[in-house]
Amino acid sequence: MNTTTIIIAVIVVLLIVVASFSKHHKHKYVFHETQVADAISKVFAESGSEEMSQTKFLHDLQLKVNCSRKELFFLFGKARSAGMITAENGMVRRL
Question: Less Cβ around it within 10 Å: N or C end of the chain?
Fold first, then answer.
């Protein structure tokens, strides 16, 4: 093999490694339950009620946590499964 082929192969391997690392890093969500609980408490405290629309809740939670939309839905599911909130008919209620 000549030098050009080896250089191209090394560059392709490096690009694959960087792409796989980037994908793995972006799909690793780390949010502790205390962070989620604090953010939910702040959202409901600012709204002044124990129940609010789901779209408003998600928007306010996204502003509090400063995360992407995908991470937001992950947090929403985590909060529901942990029993922090319930969501029915487009309304979210704190438990």
Answer: N
Using CA atoms, how far apart are residues 46 and 8, in angstroms rounded to an integer?
56
Pick the CATH number of 33-94 from 1.10.10.10, 3.30.300.30, 3.40.50.1970, 1.25.40.10: 1.10.10.10
The DSSP letter of residue 29 is -
Residue 8 corresponds to which tokens in the numbers above? 């191209």
pLDDT band for position 33 (cuts 50, 70, 90): confident
Tens digits of residue pLDDT in 58-87: 999 999 888 888 888 888 988 999 899 999
Tell me which amino acid residue 92 is: V
Tokens standing for 63? Answer: 């502003």
